[in-house]
Amino acid sequence: MHRTKDEWMQAVRRDLPPEERFSERNRAITARYARWYLDHPAIFKWAGMAAFASRQVGVAIVSVEMLTSPERMGEQNPLVGLHRIASGLFMREDLDVIRSGNNSIFNDIAWAHEAYLGGGLQEIEEHAGGGEPTLLLEGFRFIDRGIRGLKSGGNDDESEKLIWHGNVLLLRHEQSVVLQPVFDRLSPGGRILASFGSELDFSGTFPADSRCSASFSAHSGYFETLSGLCSVADAAQRWAWVESRVVPAWMEADRRMMTDPSLKRELVSMAASEPGMLHRISGFTASLLF
Q1: Residues 187-202 pLDDT 10s
Q2: Hey, which of 88, 103, 124, 164 would disulfide with 140, CB 3.0 to 4.6 Å?
């Protein structure tokens, strides 16, 4: 199926709630990533990772919504003063920047997944090249080579390595091209908040399995993170963490997919756009306030 890039983008955006419905839109984006991975776990490794990362952004979005609830009740409400203090502490504007990053990643990469499924590599080459090879285009080229290797009955291990390499190139594209401008907009305090908030748990268990989880602050050092010496907003420090901790943790979780029902339950829940615990608390809080 041949479409323009705009048509592919419209196809993936069609069912998304408006941007001003922050939490619902985040859950819809998370659901789309999770469904792509569940439907195509052998090839769409990036989408699986992105589902967990998007859900973590959703935690920040719900925090903002909980902080803004008292503000809607008028100046006389005793919760307003507490809200203003909390908003300052949690840097609401910085959290809005992080929310915008969630939309930016989806706008930049989601269309290519839909295009590859609908039209193959040719659609990516036509719309993502721009005259120069890009990480996005190269990523799908490696994925396509791996898929063709699997279909031809060749070396499965080699084909899987090609697919993983392609997905890591998509991740590199996301981190360097899309996310870095977002991190550059954060305040110094917002960078510390984002660094401590960079916690990914792919295990689906409680407590988290350390082999399937990655924490930026634990990796870089809590003092170093709190002092700002190490920051997830720093491109080199962030990629070192992603490469050494996030990717191996997700590869381990991906290997367990067929045998560990807890991980699959997490993804199925995300794919169904089910609200997490914080979403439910936020809804309960809103019902009490209004």
Answers
A1: 898 899 889 889 899 9
A2: 124
Burial, 272: exposed, middle or buried (Cβ in 10 Å; 0-12, 13-18, 19+)? Answer: exposed
Domain that holds residue 145: 17-289
Say which residue the tokens 């615990």 belong to.
277
Residue 4 domain-assigned (yes or no):
no
Q: Provide the domain count of the chain.
A: 1
Residue 6 domain-assigned? no
Return the exposure string of 102-129: e unless at least 16 CB atoms fall within 10 Å of the residue's CB, then b: bbbbbebbbbbbbbbeebebebbeebbe
pTM of the model: 0.85
User: Can you give the length of the chain in residues?
Assistant: 290
Distance CA 81, CA 65 (A): 16
For residues 242 and 240, what is the distance between their CA atoms, to the nearest angstrom? Answer: 6
Is 245 within a domain? yes
Domain contains 1:
no
* pLDDT (tens digit per residue) in 221-263: 999 999 999 999 999 999 999 999 999 999 999 998 878 888 8
User: How many Cβ atoms are within 10 Å of 256's Cβ, its own excluded?
Assistant: 18
According to DSSP, the residues that pair with 200 across neighbouring strands are 214
In whole angstroms, what is the distance from residue 169 CA to residue 165 CA? 6
